[in-house]
Amino acid sequence: MRPPLRYESLPIHDARLIAATLDIDAHGFELHKVPTVFTEFYEDALVRRNYYPEVATFLKHALRVTEVLVFDHNTRSAIRAARGDPA
User: Fold this and answer.
1) Which terminus in the chain has less CB density within 10 A, N or C?
2) Half-sphere exposure (CA, 13 Å, Cβ side) for 36?
3) Is 17 helix (H, G, I), strand (E, B) or coil?
4) Beta-carbon contacts of residue 83 (< 8 Å; ≥ 6 apart)
């Protein structure tokens, strides 16, 4: 039998304030502000065709790797959620 789930309160901080000090090898993630001209984030086909390659190019450079596979994304919208639209 599994033990009951425990819930703990943890503080959440704005990591943007320390973005320059974060390192993927030391912290498991980094934050980058990367400009884009892409605006059609609610059009899944356009995201896959146009934005995925842009993200892959950035990641190749930032992570110093030769290959990146972008395979999924989530689109969040408070307006759609309030309407009850599927995610």
Assistant:
1) N
2) 17
3) helix
4) none
Q: In 1-87, which ranges are continuous DSSP H helix?
A: 24-27, 44-46, 52-63, 78-83
Within a domain: 70: yes
In a domain, 77, yes or no: yes
pLDDT digits (tens, 9 = 90+) for 11-22: 999 999 999 999
Distance of CA 72 to CAs 24, 40, 45, 57, 75, Å? 20, 16, 12, 16, 10
Q: Half-sphere exposure of residue 35, counting CA atoms within 13 Å on the CB side?
A: 1
CB of 17 closer than 8 Å to CB of 33 = no
The whole model's pTM is what? 0.70
The reply to whether 7 falls in a domain is: no
The residues near 86 (Cβ < 8 Å, ≥ 6 apart) are none
